[in-house]
Design brief:
The structure holds two protein chains of two kinds. Chain A contains twelve helices and four strands; from the N terminus they run H-E-H-E-H-E-H-H-E-H-H-H-H-H-H-H. By secondary structure, chain A is mainly alpha-helical. Chain A has a domain at about 10-210: Rossmann fold. Chain A has a four-stranded parallel β-sheet, sandwiched between helices. The longest helix of chain A is centred in the middle third of the chain and has 23 residues, at about 120-140. Chain A starts with 18 loop residues before the first helix and ends in a 30-residue tail after the last helix. Chain B has a single domain (about 20-305), classed as 4-Layer Sandwich (Nitrilase/N-carbamoyl-D-aminoacid amidohydrolase), CATH 3.60.110. Chain B contains nine helices and 13 strands. Chain B has helices at about 35-50, 70-75, 80-90, 140, 175-185, 210-225, 275-285, 285-290, 290-305; strands spanning about 20-25, 55, 95-105, 110-115, 120-125, 150-155, 165-170, 190-195, 230-235, 235-240, 240, 250, 270-275. In chain B, about 50% of the residues are buried. The chains are: A mainly alpha, B alpha/beta.
């Protein structure tokens, strides 16, 4: 059964954000965190979906469209609508996209493993795209700006070292519901906002079908669970189904490894990230 | 860098001035780069003096940046460090409040604010309340200060007939009303709050949640204690965390003096006047009526109870 947001009226409005304020903070974030380390440009993998469209919009506001490099990386089985929507977004934002067809490199690899399932293929595609973005990062002196939102980061609904790999992430503290609001606020194309979210790693893939619940419902739950630190009893009182709550708590716990750097076996008195603790903006 | 300036300050023909001009140096330190930050301080102190300021206030940890972690020990200064002495010399023409990590003789590291005036360090405040929750981790790296004291700020450039009574509370110190109360009881006329407040809370109106909180706190303290509150917050980003600026001064009736600063770099100047403070204390004589004897008696009682 698909969990829906119906009946959760007591949490209505909890995810509302002031879009102008959020835009100002995210724009400053990209501008300062890119420039303080000596860069002027950002490179964004543009999928045709709402997250990467919004990311590109923020990068354009922060650095200027001339300093934003959108990269469209279709696979031969990708939906043509994805590339069409990506081109629409790139054009609307005044950017010139680079199109890199990943079919040859994906097919060359899976010729060795013809029986590989779609998860393997999907992960490989996400990581090929990452490797292209990082190659262009060096070639064009542009930082890779990621597109992961808070919902997918908390659920672990992303490919580690694939779409989850980037230098900066402007959207990582916004739930999908809030992404929609911000995309509307910034006037992104309706085609991008209104279509069903999909990783488009195989034909007909849909986030909500694959996850088994609606973003609207899980965002409400995550907000109450994570941001408001509600207990299970309180979540029950707010109308959330107990089984749904358990399922999501388990997903968040089981995907924690994706949100952390690799574990280092401790030997010395000063181990990196444990007791060797420096800010990343060290000296900037 | 002077954004806005009040009418040029001039010595009154009627006698000593009762007013001072305060500059709020809303800036973004480079994280862990003492040299660059000292240079920036010298520029801003010069600009403040040239703009007619009698006092320039910098944000919390203005010489180091905020989320220092292991940089705390590497950026620490002593009162006789050359960096501090350079600033002491620069602050001859205009008083200055600067923020730094201060190392004690027994190698404790404090989040400190120094009041510099006339070639001397007039006062040192060590942050008492070190936030160690949520995104904060201060008590892991820092030692806590141990006192709240008002002091006489010379403000010689203002040509005042007497020093002003000033107290410093650093950021989280302001969130404990007892700190402000103690300064008020110590005769404070101006509470200076250098701050490095990370912006968060985007769901309740067009202002950040943190900005709304500081608006309430600064205006409430100013009104209840009939004192000026000078709030100087930093700007910029550290490891993705934004600092929201919004530096402002609130008068002893709880009203903003001019407009609060935005999120950009700048150094607004505002005028403070002891005559306005006098009027506020005539209109609202809470300080006169404050029952310190009751506070003391009740504190003694509570102290006995807590000890048991």
């Amino acid at each position: 059964m698909t969990e829906t947001a119906a009946g959760l009226s007591r949490t209505d409005g909890a995810l509302a954000v002031d879009c102008a304020l959020v835009t100002e903070i995210l724009t400053g974030f990209v501008r300062e965190e890119v420039r303080k380390v000596g860069f002027e440009r950002g490179v964004v993998g543009l999928s045709g979906g709402i997250d990467s469209a919004l990311t590109l919009a923020v990068v354009c506001r922060a650095l200027g469209p001339e300093n934003a490099l959108p990269v469209i990386m279709p696979y031969r089985a990708s939906s043509p609508a994805s590339e069409r929507d990506a081109r629409l977004v790139a054009a609307q934002l005044g950017t010139t996209p680079l199109v890199v067809d990943i079919s040859p490199q994906i097919d060359a690899y899976f010729d060795r493993y013809p029986d590989a399932d779609r998860n393997r293929r999907g992960n490989k595609m996400a990581r090929e795209r990452m490797s292209i973005l990082y190659d262009l990062s060096l070639a064009r002196a542009a930082l890779v700006v990621g597109t992961s939102n808070k919902t997918e980061l908390l659920l672990g609904y992303g490919t580690i070292h694939g779409d989850m790999a980037h230098a900066l992430n402007p959207l990582g503290d916004l739930y999908k519901t809030q992404i929609f609001a911000l995309a509307r606020h910034l006037g992104l194309p309706a085609a991008v906002i209104e279509k069903a979210p999909s990783a488009d790693l195989w034909e007909g893939q849909s986030d909500e079908d694959e996850l088994g619940f609606e973003y609207a419902a899980v965002d409400q739950l995550l907000h109450q669970m994570i941001d408001e630190r509600r207990t299970r009893a309180e979540l029950h009182g707010l109308g959330f189904d107990d089984a749904f709550v358990k399922q999501i708590q388990r997903r968040v716990r089981d995907s924690q490894y994706k949100r952390r750097p690799p574990l280092i076996a401790k030997l010395s008195n000063r181990t990196i990230d444990r007791d060797f603790r420096y800010p990343r903006d060290w000296g900037h | 860098m002077v954004n806005s300036a009040p009418a040029t300050a001039t010595a009154s023909e009627a006698g000593p001035r009762s007013d001072i001009v305060v500059a709020l140096a809303q800036m973004a330190p480079r994280l862990g780069d003492l040299g660059a930050n000292v240079t920036r301080h010298l520029e801003l102190i010069g600009a403040a003096a040239a703009g007619g300021a009698d006092l320039v206030v910098f944000p919390e940890l203005s010489l180091t940046g905020y989320f220092l972690k292991d940089l705390v020990t590497e950026t620490a200064l002593r009162l006789d460090s050359p960096e501090i002495q350079t600033l002491v010399e620069a602050a001859r023409g205009v008083d200055a409040v600067v923020g730094c990590i201060l190392e004690s003789d027994d190698h404790r590291f404090y989040n400190a604010a120094l009041y510099l005036s006339g070639g001397a360090i007039v006062h040192v405040h060590r942050k008492v309340y070190l936030p160690t929750y949520g995104l904060f981790d201060e008590a892991r790296d820092l030692a806590a200060g141990y006192r709240f004291r008002a002091f006489e700020a010379p403000l010689r450039s203002a040509g005042a007939h007497r020093p002003w009574r000033v107290g410093v509370l650093i950021c989280e110190d302001l969130w404990h009303p007892s700190s402000a109360y103690l300064l008020a009881r110590d005769g404070v006329e101006v509470i200076i709050c250098p701050s490095a407040s990370p912006g968060r809370g985007v769901g309740h109106g067009s202002e950040l949640g943190t900005a709304q909180s500081y608006d309430v706190i600064t205006r409430t303290y100013a009104q209840l204690l009939t004192a000026y509150v000078v709030y100087c917050n930093r700007i910029g980003y550290e490891d993705g965390i934004n600092f929201w600026g919004g530096s402002r001064i609130v008068d002893p009736e709880g009203h903003l003096v001019g407009e609060p600063a935005g999120r950009d770099e700048g150094m607004p100047l505002h005028r403070l006047d002891l005559a306005a403070l006098r009027r506020a204390r005539i209109a609202n004589p809470m300080l006169r009526d404050e029952r310190h004897d009751i506070v003391d008696a009740e504190c003694r009682r509570l102290h006995r109870r807590e000890r048991d």
